[in-house]
Amino acid sequence: MSLREKKKIETKNRIFEVSGKLFKEKGFENTTIDEITKEAGIAKGTFFNYFPTKESLVFYFAEQKADLICDLTENEAVGRLHTKERIKKFLVSLAESYEKDKDLTKLLFFEYGRYIKSSGNAPDKDRNPHSRLMKVILDLLEEGIKKREVKVSVDTRIAAEALNAVYFHTLMVWLKSENELSFSRDISAKIDLLFEGIGD
């Protein structure tokens, strides 16, 4: 990566970081682009070079999560684990990334949903964290069947949908909770339960 490219990434992340701070202080709707550029120490034109609208900051948050999903699946150490542990490590690591800043995650997660609902502008499947997550889980389960680490009789689509649904339900419960619930510990326990089953 060239110095110029590195500088561009740093500037984009700086804008996002400053925006997140202001969003938490004032709310998304009450924060202006002028306030963001002033706080970040950049010109308005620089902001628009990276983010065409204020709403695109919300999509950048979603893209960061999509990129993290990709990075986690390419981790060689994780790749050597048993299928159950790979899925668990993957989902727990993703949960831990959200836990780093619950307030910002909550604000941007719900703003993302609100914007998509009102505008109809959903990201394409490759940039959508929900779709990426579903595909990764499905791929891991199918690989697990080949390695005899997942029952051959398992319908991988249904299993992936169940894991995906449990993950997003747990995320929503965590975002809405006022107590010290741990998203990562909760999802870890639920994955164990799903793999072990609840029958006698």
Could you explain how this protein is built, in words?
There is one protein chain. The chain is mostly helical and 200 residues long. It has helices at 3-26, 33-40, 44-50, 56-73, 76-79, 83-99, 102-119, 129-146, 156-176, 183-196. The chain contains 10 helices and no strands. α8 (129-146) crosses α9 (156-176). The longest helix is centred in the first third of the chain and has 24 residues, at 3-26. The radius of gyration is 19 Å and the shape is elongated. The mean pLDDT is 88.
Short synopsis of the structure:
The protein is mostly helical and 200 residues long. It is 74% helix and 0% strand.
Distance N to C terminus: 55 Å
Gyration radius from CA atoms, angstroms:
19 Å
The number of distinct β-strands equals: 0
Q: What oligomeric state best describes the polypeptide chains here? A: single chain
Q: State the major sheet.
A: none
H/E order of the elements?
HHHHHHHHHH
Beta-strand proportion: under 5%
Determine the fraction of residues in helical runs and give it as a percent range.
over 70%
Model regions low in confidence, pLDDT < 50 over at least 5 residues: none
Q: Briefly note the structural class of the backbone.
A: mainly alpha
Number of H/I helices: 10
Mean pLDDT: 88
Which shape, going by the Cα principal axes?
elongated
